[in-house]
Design brief:
By secondary structure, this protein is mainly alpha-helical. The protein has one domain. Helices cover about 65% and strands about 0% of the residues. The chain is built from six helices and no strands. Helix 1 packs parallel to helix 4 and helix 4 crosses helix 5. The protein starts with 7 loop residues before the first helix and ends in a 12-residue tail after the last helix.
Length: about 140
């Protein structure tokens, strides 16, 4: 029997681990797998690096961390990181992940709108939908 799929709660744990990873430590798929193995029960097993990288949110978080790590190396900063700096870095990483997801969704929306416009009567599909919410007055 193979490894279980990454559930939503597992995904959140993995994302939290990536976001809170110390910038001084090198992050690779294998080091992430070793960290996850320590966090989980040994009998449960750990996902392969291919299954971790196949998850879009985990891949985005991993890439955002790598960007943040290279940017922090170029900055001249004191070696000591306090809690505020860690939290700021975590939030910046999360913002980068959301920006990547937004850009991907915007591209997909543009592609779908273009494809719908090529259909016969497709411009009717692109018209705004009527407001079907109930009136809040009286």
């Amino acid at each position: 029997m193979g490894m279980k799929k990454i559930s939503a709660s597992n995904e959140q744990e993995i994302l939290r681990a990536i976001r809170t990873w110390p910038l001084a430590n090198r992050l690779t798929w294998e080091t992430l797998r070793a960290f996850l193995a320590e966090q989980q029960a040994a009998s449960q097993g750990v996902w392969s690096r291919q299954s971790l990288s196949a998850n879009a949110n985990v891949q985005d978080a991993f890439n955002a961390f790598k960007v943040r790590q290279t940017q922090s190396r170029t900055k001249i900063a004191p070696q000591s990181e306090d809690a505020k700096d860690c939290r700021i870095g975590e939030l910046e990483g999360e913002l980068r992940e959301l920006q990547i997801r937004f850009d991907r969704l915007l591209l997909r929306h543009t592609q779908l709108a273009y494809n719908a416009s090529l259909l016969e009567g497709g411009t009717q599909l692109l018209d705004p939908l009527p407001d079907n919410t109930r009136s809040q007055t009286g």
